[in-house]
Amino acid sequence: MGLQPRKVLDNSTSDILEGMNGQQVEEFDPPEVRALIEGQFLSMRAHSERFGMPSPPRRIIAAGGASADQSISDPVLSLQPLRPLELH
């Protein structure tokens, strides 16, 4: 299981997608996926710091459907061990 995008758009300097050419891909290389996921984590960290959360964080809470996906949770595990928590 992994992230499987449907299309990749060519580089563009416009905000409009009209007339852009895309190419269908089967999947991205693992380093590209990891870079995307890590970038999202860094963005979340930056946002949380702006709201006064401690830096570095003392804990990470992974919630929602994506948290069950190993290809998403593994990069987090490499940064900080996770203690599973189940809500009933």
Can you put this structure into words, describing what you see?
This protein has helices at 30-50, 70-79; strands at residues 7-9, 22-24. The mean pLDDT is 74. The chain has a domain at 29-80. It is built from two helices and two strands. Helix 1 (30-50) packs across helix 2 (70-79). It is extended. Strands 1-2 form a two-stranded antiparallel ribbon. With 88 residues, the chain is mainly α.
- Going by helix content, strand content and strand pairing, the class is mainly alpha
Which bin fits the share of residues in helices?
25-40%
Largest sheet: 2 strands, antiparallel
Number of helices: 2
Low-confidence stretches: none
* Total strands: 2
Q: Terminal Cα separation, in Å?
A: 27 Å
SSE succession = EEHH
Mean pLDDT: 74
> Cα-atom Rg, whole angstroms?
17 Å
Any idea what the shape is? extended
Strand content: 5-15%
Q: Strand order, biggest sheet?
A: 1-2
GO molecular function, one term: kinase activity
Keywords: Kinase, Transferase
Protein name: SUGAR KINASE
In short, what is this structure?
35% of the residues lie in helices and 7% in strands.
List the helices and strands and how they pair.
Elements: E1 7-9, E2 22-24, H1 30-50, H2 70-79
Antiparallel strand pairs: 1-2
